[in-house]
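The methods section describes the discrete structure representation at length, but only in general terms. What matters is that the chain and its backbone geometry are given together, residue for residue. For illustration, here is how one protein appears when written out as sequence plus structure tokens:
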Amino acid sequence: MDDKVCVLLAAYNGAEFIQEQLDSILKQVDVLLDIYVSLDLSNDKTFDIILDYQNRYSNIYFLSYGEKYGSAGKNFFHLLRTVDFSCYDFISFADQDDIWLTHKLSTSIKLIKEFGSDAYSGNVVAFWPNGKRRLIKKDCEQVEFDYLFESAGPGCSFVLKGKLACEIKNTLNEKLEDINNLWLHDWFCYSFARSNGFKWHIGSEPLMLYRQHDNNQVGASKGVGALISRAKVILNGEGFEKVVQQSKFLGQNELPIQLINSGSVLSLLKLASIARNCRRKNSEKILFVFALLLLSIKKVLKA
């Protein structure tokens, strides 16, 4: 029998591209799937489009409409908390504007089974309106503490086993009052999985086209400018604040968290010394060290 998959789709003002996304999900092969759509309060025709698809397809479910979530992450957390996916073998996330290859889900599930893992994510092909395409590599080797600082890739590439997804749901519902402290659903799911002993496989074959446009909340940024931008997030404290907030929610107290919470110059330098265990990609490891060194200098000058 084909595996049964629950697809969670978060949308907001997505009228321009959501039909192409839905069509590509409906064309998935070798799986049985249902699509649950949550629409953040919008001012375009997205509501009408989703309603039309729900009327035409029996496997599309439109959640109650009218709430303002404010971000894709919060909308996905809403989906995770409210959709009953206990009867599904796998749960997948979908953005409103990408294009899935027809074998995206079936290949992801095949790799989960082949590697004995509990979840899959992978490389994607970013594409722009001008026809440009670029491979976004996320399959660098996982390291000891990477989950404390980064996701395993775009959430739209995620496929989770039902058991893992249900444990994530239970944790979110148990700590409902603290959910607003969380930022990105994909990073949260990866961090939850790794810190709770679940195995995660990051695949190399791109299984989807990852649309890039002006309204991307998290896009395929690259180059020196993108590295500088990410360094600034660390230097102004925003990056570590998000790390600490998520670690508190998940009860994580690994060495990097202890060093960040200490906040001393010596602790920051110790954190820089284990950068190879905190990020997967070599350029990100270098950036991590550079930002921590600058932050240490900043603290010394302020003293």
